[in-house]
Amino acid sequence: MNYEYLAIGASALSVILLFALVWLWMKISKIDEVRREFLIDDTTKKIDDVLVGHDKEIKRLSEQHLELGEYVRGLANANKKNFQKIGFVRFNPFGDAGGSISFTIALLDAESNGFVLTSLHGREGNRVYSKEINKGVSKSPLTEEEQEAIKQAA
User: Fold this and answer.
1) Which domain covers residue 120, as residue numbers?
2) DSSP-derived secondary structure for 117-154
3) What is the pTM of this model?
């Protein structure tokens, strides 16, 4: 009987098994790393208990996410009434007054509702006028400066 071929075959099989053993050891090491991270170094817990705990936490976070979404939508709706659009124009209404110290400011919400405030500064005093704006339009006639301020705000 030729034992030489038997020895070569056993050696080859041993080398293959050694590679398989190293490969399996590497795979088990990776799985063990994941297990340690997943169980947070608490090896006494069962994986089922950990999964149930994580599932409860995910449900709690989902509920919080929905609540926060509703809260943000409420804030967005409430914010529509705040002044969001502002236009400002400085001008000189009287040729004899010095500089452009008169102004018009338009304060509008998200739906272009609000008012225009105009301050006319002259030698004899200062006058302030306001006009209501509804959907970007005023019932009162607007000056060029007031129209420009509304245009800037829009």
Assistant:
1) 85-153
2) EEEEEETTEEEEEEEEEETTEESS---HHHHHHHHHH-
3) 0.56
Residues 40 and 59 in one domain: yes
Residues 13 and 70 grouped into a single domain: yes
Whole-number Å distance between alpha carbons of 101 and 119: 9
Quick one: tokens of 75?
A: 């804030």
Among the listed residues 14, 148, 35, 28, the one whose alpha carbon sits nearest the alpha carbon of residue 86: 148
What residues form DSSP beta bridges with 131?
116
Q: Tell me the one-letter amino acid at 52.
A: V
* Rounded CA separation 138/149 (Å): 13
Residue by residue, pLDDT tens for the chain (154 residues) are: 678 888 888 999 999 999 999 999 999 999 888 777 766 655 556 777 778 888 999 999 999 999 999 999 999 888 888 999 999 999 888 776 567 889 999 999 988 999 999 998 877 888 999 999 999 889 999 999 999 999 999 8
CA 88 to chain centre: 30
Quote the tokens at residue 43.
């090896």
